[in-house]
Amino acid sequence: MGGAITGILLAITFVIFVIYAMKGGNLTVGFFAMAVLWAIIGMVPFQTAIKEIFTDPVLNYGKTAAYIIFGSWFGRVLVDTGIAGSISRRTEKVGKKRPVLATILIAIVVVLIFTSSYGVGSAIAVGVILFPIMFSIGVPKPIAVSVFTIAIGAAMYVNNVLFVQFQVFFPEVAWGPHYQRFGFVAMFVQLAVLIAFILFNAKKIRNGKPIIVESDFKDTTLDVPIWTYILPILPVALSIFAKWDAIPALLFSTLLAFLATGNMKSYTRFVTMMNDTAKLAISDIAGLLIMLFVLTMFQSAAIHATSSFTELFQQIIPNNKLLLIVIVAIIAPLSYFRGPLMLYGAGAATAAILVSTGLFNQYFLYGLLVVPSMMGVSACITQSWNLWSVQYAKLDTKTFLLTGLPWAWGATVINLFVAYILL
């Protein structure tokens, strides 16, 4: 009887959390409340909860936090040294005569930059360069916004900084060849769908009315060596081919960006640039880090609270991988508004339950839940840089969702089957 009551209470609080997350509730508050509630409902001993739920997970997350900080710093450096802007400005030269080709090149540039860059600050800094370019060559605002956000989502499949954040849900999954093979295929699939989206809207782009947007961006095209255009993908390349850890790869690339753009010509200039970019980068992700620390508490609480229900979950959840893939492909939009398929939302509880069953390989579960989560990252209004993009373009939310959702959903369906094959 006690077990049944516990199960009912866990289910009720899960539903409440899903509703709370989908209505835009603060996730830091939500995850902490759920960690406390599930520790109480699961009758976790007080001292065990203090150590194994509210202490150890946070301390063990320190390594991941370092990855996030260095990734955000690298993204800020790419922007503030002029490298990201220089790449963007060179694509603009194509735009006046071939706006469709220019739009495709811009999408590729965004993917290139965000394979290693991370953070809403970096996204905004790149967006204030690229949106005026797209508007000036006649790309309609709804199309321009979706190109930008879906391109960032594509890059996130191979962005190590985002990978280590999602990795907390699946401790057996590692950043290595097994995942990287899937990550690059998924990235190219989403990029291919995005290019199809641009070609589908080619007539609207060609016939679009140019809009001139005032920008404070300084044109640094002539100041930045062309060879620095490889820097956005250098950390990923060092990680894959030289087997470097992400932190030295990001740090080396950051220092190389400073050196190549003349920001190390004097000690004073270097220190000033280093401090300024670091401060901005860390402020960009301060709230995210706190949320992720609290998320680890909830993850641990979920494992403790659901451990006694593993057999029940095993009986309820389909044990056929292909059937699960088909189900998730159909209900993928539940990743929107922080729903039960979004790992930065109610999907955290879904992941905890699926992992606790032990029914599936964690690489498979990673693909099963990360792919729809990437759909949310790419085209949901609750993603911070998506919301900023919509506000910057003065676009209404409904138009944004209707423009991007069908294409993001299409990429998600394909990538779920890619995950089934490769993971």
Automatic annotation (TrEMBL):
Coiled-coil positions: none
Presence of keyword Transmembrane: yes
Keywords associated with the record: Membrane, Transmembrane, Transmembrane helix
Keyword Lipid metabolism: no
Domain of life of the native organism: Bacteria
Transmembrane segments: 6-22, 29-46, 66-87, 99-116, 122-140, 147-170, 182-202, 222-241, 247-264, 285-304, 316-334, 366-388, 400-422
Record's protein name: Gluconate:proton symporter
Organism of origin: Enterococcus sulfureus ATCC 49903
